[in-house]
Amino acid sequence: MRAPDIHERLLATAAAIGPPLHDALARIGPIVIAPPAHASVAERLFVEIVSQQLSTKAALAIWTRVEAAALAQGGAPRDLFVPGFEAVLRGCGVSANKARALQAVRAAEAQGLLGADLAGLPHAERSAVLCSIRGVGPWTADMVGIFHFLDPDIWPVGDVAAVGTLRRLTGCDDTVPVAARFAPFRSILARALWRSRDAAT
Asked: Does domain 3-33+154-200 have CATH number 1.10.1670?
């Protein structure tokens, strides 16, 4: 389905819920989905782990330092995600727990857990695989599903921004049944809510 058609469907659902949500989505307009920014699941997970519980600005600053440190070593960031580089990562602002998680993702990739077959799995099954890796939780699995696998129907229940924005626009504390009304395009709803929040900020 084309982005304008999805947008019209979201607007029709939002109109039945309330004017604030409908008007917010109308201001955002159709959501055009860009191709995945990373070549592999592991690369996306690396970025998501560094970003966990941080503002976008802080996460970008740390990741930029990681890239610079890797370049100084003559390699890529993933080359630092092995035992022996913990002090380098700490110097970039990566916590010890996140450093261990980054190592776990690289090890999982080497073991074949992050292969192309993940793309064919339903989100719940894919999340179970991802969440078996140290440092990867449901929020991270949701972000990978939305932004790497481009799954159109994930509602990220652990995302403070998406959930908080939907609560504010609907007055509903429990966003799960509200978001369910937007299936099979809950990921598109989340993207629109993130944009709405950013625009308001």
From this structure: yes
